[in-house]
Amino acid sequence: MSDLLAIGASSVRAYQSALTTVSDNIANAATPGFARRTTTLAEISATSGRLSQRITTDGLGVAVTGVARLADGFRATAVRSAGADLARTETSATWLGSIEGALGNNQLGATVTSFFNAAKAVATDPSASTPRTALIESASGVASAFAATGRALDQANSDLDSAAAATVGSLESIGATLAQVNAGLSRAAPGSVSEAQLLDQRDQALEQLSALSDINVSITDGGQATVRLGGANGPVFVDGNTAGYVTYLRNDSGAVSLVVHRAGAVAGLSPTGGALAGIVDGAQRIAGARQTLNQIATDFVEGVNAVQAQGRDLDGNPGAPIFANGTPPTDISIVITGPRAIAAAAVGGGPRDNSNLAALDALRRSGGYEDRLAGQIADNAATLAGRRTVADAQTSIRDGAVAARDQVSGVNLDQEAVDLLRFQQAYQASSRVIQVARETLQSILDIR
Question: Which of 142, 310, 406, 439 has the fewest CB within 10 Å, making it most exposed?
Fold first, then answer.
């Protein structure tokens, strides 16, 4: 009779544990990083008799052998890889969008067009003061637009540096968390709830890391993760309970230096995925846009001043410069003394002569400043559109990878409801076994 009681008691404890696991699954169905768990049960058996005549007796109850966490390492790797690709493309698109705003918001191309159109107006009446004043105002507008566009690109660079600092800070924080999880896994009992929770935290940390940089992960038998940044040949970032940190530097040409520091060792990092790779790409593109704009500004100022120097102003003096480049070249200033200093006439021409302005119109065509500015905007826009198209495709790939992973590790509430009912019935049946055993035992005692 005592065996019957023991069987019932073991079953009650086992199914209570199973119900607790199902309840945890239901409660964490919407928790990011949570992997579904099941309670593994085994029949209790006993062996008796001499060594040569061992007898195994089954059916002595049920015991909990552990909590199984349902996860697929290959599918988790696919999610991380897809996430790293998407993060790089989206981050790159962000900085391309910043370039688009910097180049387009200040209407630089339109002000250059207005300047050359104002010069044509002077040509219609070279001695009149009103069109000359309008040309000076247009020149001031061009200088302001160049300067504002340059400052906008500089601000994009500053924003990129801030984003990079935040990214490497997040890397350090997540790496430290993963090192702590590794330390916890080294102490956790296999098959325990604590181990399952730590493995959830590990996988979530790895997914977060992959959004910042492409990573290569190796897992020990105890579940501890060793992480390399930048792929399989990249520097070790987390190993056991030791994590590193990353430093970021950028020069004026847009070249980015990323270095991993860990356990006294220093190694260069060249990410090909994640937000860091997008930042590297963004830095190069912002620097390229700045270089192109600087060259256009330099060519524009030198070209206009060269034409001005070839002519004579209203007082018969050689044409003085209209503009001056600063540092950087987009910091253009107006240096002409006034409307009368515009050199509309050719050498030897009188106040009504406008022949030198024909050279300014020729400069407009040969310099192609408006076309170069428009081409710069169009090239950036085309690249941005391409990035967004790629991002849409990569989003679909990542969503598919997440869905495939969740088929294994995700919580299905319908399945949990079925398991809840099944284990409740088993718990009740086990309780009934205990009750019957007690009643039978009491009946036997009453007979005595």
Answer: 439
Sequential DSSP letters for 243-270: E-EEEEEE-TT--EEEEEEETTEEEE--
Local structure of 94: helix, strand or coil: helix
What pTM did the predictor assign? 0.86
Long-range contact set of residues 136-140: C-beta below 8 Å, sequence gap at least 24: 136/334, 136/336, 136/338, 136/339, 136/342, 138/111, 138/114, 139/115, 139/322, 139/323, 139/334, 139/336, 140/334
Instruction: Find the distance separating the first CA and the last CA of the chain, reported in whole Å.
Output: 16
Residue 140 CB coordination number (10 Å): 17
Q: Give me the pLDDT at residue 59, please.
A: 54
d(CA 419, CA 398): 30
Confidence of residue 71 (pLDDT cuts 50, 70, 90): confident
pLDDT in tens, 156-178: 999 999 999 999 999 999 999 99
Q: What is the CA radius of gyration of the chain?
A: 37
Residue the block writes with tokens 């036997």: 444
Could you tell me which of 59, 62, 61 has the C-alpha nearest to residue 42? 62
Could you tell me if 159 and 387 are in contact, meaning their C-beta atoms sit under 8 angstroms apart?
no
Structure confidence by residue, pLDDT tens digits, 285-294: 999 999 999 9
3-state helix, strand, coil in the chain (%, to 5): 65, 15, 25
Average pLDDT over residues 128-140: 94
Supply the DSSP symbol for 311.
Answer: S
Give the integer Cα–Cα distance in Å for 5 and 440: 11
Please count the other Cβ atoms lying within 10 Å of the Cβ belonging to residue 125: 14
